[in-house]
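ZP: hey, is the zinc ion complex queued? I don't see it on the tracker
AM: it wasn't, my bad. submitting now with these inputs:
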Amino acid sequence: MSRPDIDPELRAFFQCHLAARDGRRCFYCRRNFKKRPMRRKTLDHYVPHWIWPGWDVDNLVLACERCNLAKGAALPWPLVWLLLATFRPENWELTA
Ligand SMILES: [Zn+2]
């Protein structure tokens, strides 16, 4: 799936909003963007765009390019663990 595109002004607005909400650092590796100006910040869909399409700020985090590329379109492990803990197979009901 191709990377979704966004208007540059909206991208800047989201980056300011997320920096105020989460701090001016990468959500995954926690490295500060201020101290490392060469490290480019990106907008990352925490829940991958193919599952949660659109640009809902509740699903966006700031990430450095390296972490964003490493994560790709995969589900983050904390979310996988939460889903596995919540939806345990022994609680599944089979219907005919
Ligand atoms: Zn990072």
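AM: back. Helices lie at 8-22, 65-71, 77-86.
ZP: great, adding it to the tracker
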